[in-house]
Design goal:
Chain A: It comes from Rhizobium giardinii. Chain A: It is found in: Cell inner membrane; Cell membrane. Chain A: Keywords: Cell inner membrane, Cell membrane, Ion transport, Membrane, Transmembrane, Transmembrane helix, Transport, Zinc, Zinc transport. Chain A: Involved in the high-affinity zinc uptake transport system. The complex is a heterodimer of chains A (about 280) and B (about 300). Helix content of chain A is about 80%, strand content about 0%. By secondary structure, chain A is mostly helical. Chain A has a single domain (about 5-275), classed as ABC transporter involved in vitamin B12 uptake, BtuC, CATH 1.10.3470.10. In chain A, helix 2 (about 35-40) crosses helix 4 (about 55-80), helix 2 (about 35-40) runs parallel beside helix 5 and helix 7 (about 125-155) packs antiparallel against helix 9 (about 165-190). Chain A is globular, with a radius of gyration of 20 Å. Chain B has about 300 residues and is of the alpha/beta class. Chain B has helices at about 50-60, 95-100, 105-115, 130-145, 160-180, 220-230, 295-300; strands at about 15-20, 25-35, 40-45, 65-70, 75-80, 150-155, 180-185, 190-195, 200, 205-210, 235, 240-245, 250, 255-260. In chain B, helix 3 (about 105-115) packs across helix 4 (about 130-145). The radius of gyration of chain B is 20 Å and the shape is globular. The relative contact order of chain B is 0.14. Classes of the chains: A mainly alpha (about 280), B alpha/beta (about 300). The interface of A and B includes residues 154, 155, 164, 271 and 272 of A.
Chain lengths: ~280, ~300
């Protein structure tokens, strides 16, 4: 049952899920879901450019996503249009320009569905190295940036007043997002990257009592979703990306069920009383 | 308690003719003041008068577009912003909030929570706190880091009156124990902490400044607020020598009208003078309906110590 390609997909998918957990928490804390979507959609432009100029795929996706996020920061500073409208313009323009460019390049055959929805067959051993190498880099960066990132999530002015550098943390965060999008593209696909960021983090919220616990839980839940999704994908012969998202959604729905809630309240009451005495 | 101030020492922060402009409009201009160790400076003024902007400029969150700001090298700031909304998706207990911008020892966290009266809420999620409890948590966080300069933007908002007095008492004792400088923004135009060394009234520029009058001795005030309040709160009575017209121009007491308002344009009388209650000359004072200060009402409510002689 464990074909070689499937093991590769599983190893890559688990690495990816661990990486995106903490980052996904910041995406929902900072209300940046649509922002992540925009960066992810611009990845198709990166794919087109990589084919056109014969560049490394991940590198060109990373560069395009980073450029789009910087462009958005610049446009935001001009303040003429709302962030929402700007995101809508950038997101779909980048995606459409990518699609149009790919259509013009009649000399290359490209599996568009694979890019949009992920393709476990496409995961090579080199991809695994990139996912784990890039993932470890992202995790180290997140740990290093944790305090300024968290403080500026709560309030950037507070963070700056007390000697942290929220602008720099924000810039690094954008670059980490671009990196994660570049490595996630093959496994979940361009259109579904943000769901792998958001759904496990949202599921983790219910069980988390601190930001750090939520980040770790999000990674764990992501691993479950990827594993479940990939097995489903193999079994039902469905595209890997949507299968992973369906599995993640299943876990999210489970987390909404009211089990253990009564116990939680009781514990809370007991601990409050304990604190008084 | 005033011996913290050492005349040879440089102030913690010094603003010199500082102004901040956004979208072609001056939010605040010509601001000059300094805060030394052990000093409490209170900013008051109507909405949109540039209080928060001034405080943010002082601590370096905003850069002045004119003038300059000098901060003591390595200045450690504790900041309570005016508005702070924490997204529900962020699981944050009061205890975890304490170490948001820097590590603290467990004992330091405990002490800060204890002094603000919320030790029993250490493990509560901040989203479940009431407005007053949340303000205390923010204050606890700011003082736990033992700052050189404490900047409090409306720290008593959402706190009931007795809580307000307790918090002002706490702020006073923090100053007395640690000798830090305090920049306080008051949500009330006229009632300020009695311990305040300097009150600065802003309205896009420094309107006036001085020491708060000790009206706590006034029987009307005692009757209204009680003797406990009188020890903690004081009324800052101030007169304005100009009126802001609805079109943005300024009507001066000498009858002239100018586009803007500068302390040194010759229309003002002693912008740096300390205003007192009894030795106070109101002859050149014009109270307009849009004065923006509303202090007539307040002072009348307090038994009207200020007599208007216009």
């Amino acid at each position: 049952m464990f074909d070689d390609f499937f093991t590769r997909a599983l190893v890559a998918g688990i690495g990816l899920a661990i990486t995106v957990g903490p980052l996904g928490c910041f995406v929902i804390w900072r209300r940046m879901a649509y922002f992540g979507d925009t960066m992810a959609h611009s990845a198709l432009l990166g794919v087109a450019l990589s084919l056109l100029f014969n560049l490394n795929l991940m590198l060109s996706v990373f560069i395009v996503a980073a450029v789009v996020s910087l462009l958005l920061l610049l446009l935001q500073k001009r303040g003429a249009l709302s962030t929402d409208a700007l995101l809508g313009i950038l997101s779909h323009s980048a995606l459409s320009i990518g699609l149009v460019m790919v259509a013009f390049m009649t000399w290359v055959r490209i599996d568009l569905v694979g890019f949009l929805f992920g393709d476990i067959l496409a995961v090579s051993e080199a991809d695994i190295d990139l996912v784990w190498g890039g993932g470890i880099l992202v995790l180290f960066a997140i740990v290093y940036l944790w305090r300024p990132l968290l403080a500026s999530t709560v309030n950037p002015e507070l963070a700056e007043a007390e000697g942290l550098q929220p602008e720099r943390a924000r810039l690094y965060f954008m670059l980490l997002m671009a990196l994660v999008i570049a490595i996630a593209m093959k496994i979940v696909g361009i259109l579904l990257i943000t769901s792998l960021l958001i759904i496990p983090a949202a599921t983790a919220r219910r069980f988390a009592t601190s930001p750090e616990i939520m980040a770790v839980l999000a990674s764990g839940i992501g691993v479950l979703a990827v594993t479940g999704g990939l097995f489903g994908s193999l079994h039902f012969d469905t595209p890997s990306g949507p299968s992973i998202v369906v599995a993640a959604m299943g876990l999210f729905v489970l987390s909404l069920l009211p089990f253990g809630r009564k116990g939680e309240i009781e514990t809370a009451i007991h601990s409050t009383h304990g604190g008084h005495h | 308690m005033l011996n913290f101030r050492d005349p040879d020492q440089k102030p913690l922060v010094l603003l010199n003719n500082a102004g901040v402009r956004r979208g072609g409009r001056w939010l605040v201009r010509g601001v000059e003041f300094s805060i030394s160790r052990g000093e409490i400076v209170t900013l008051i003024g109507p909405n949109g008068s540039g209080k928060s902007t001034t405080a943010k400029t002082a601590i370096g969150v905003l850069k002045p577009d004119e003038g300059w700001v000098e901060r003591k090298p390595g200045l450690k700031v504790g900041y309570v912003p005016q508005k702070l909304a924490i997204d529900w998706t962020l699981p944050l207990t009061v205890e975890r909030l304490m170490t948001l911008t820097g590590p603290l020892k467990g004992r330091e966290i405990e002490e800060a929570l204890h002094s603000t009266g919320i030790a029993h809420l250490a493990r509560a999620e901040v989203q479940h706190l009431s407005g007053g409890e949340f303000q205390r948590a923010l204050l606890a966080r700011a003082i736990a880091r033992k700052p050189d300069l404490l900047v409090l933007d409306e720290p008593v908002q959402g706190v009931d009156f007795s809580g307000e007095i307790a918090l002002y008492d706490l702020i006073k004792s923090i100053r007395n124990q640690t000798g830090c400088g305090i920049l306080l923004i008051s949500h009330d135009l006229h009632v300020v902490m009695a311990e305040t060394d300097t009150v600065i009234c802003l309205n896009g520029h420094v309107c006036c400044r001085g020491t708060p009058q000790v009206v706590s001795q006034s029987p009307e005030y005692l009757k209204l607020f009680g003797s406990r309040a009188a020890k903690t709160l004081a009324v800052y009575s101030h007169d304005h020598d100009h009126t802001h017209l609805p079109d943005g121009r300024v009507l001066h007491a000498d009858g002239s009208i100018t586009e803007h308002c500068h302390p040194d344009d010759g229309h003002h009388h002693g912008a740096h003078a300390e205003h007192g209650h009894d030795d106070h000359d109101h002859a050149d004072h014009v109270h307009g309906p849009d004065c923006g200060c509303g202090h007539q009402n307040r002072l009348q409510g307090l038994g009207n110590k200020e007599t208007r002689r216009v």
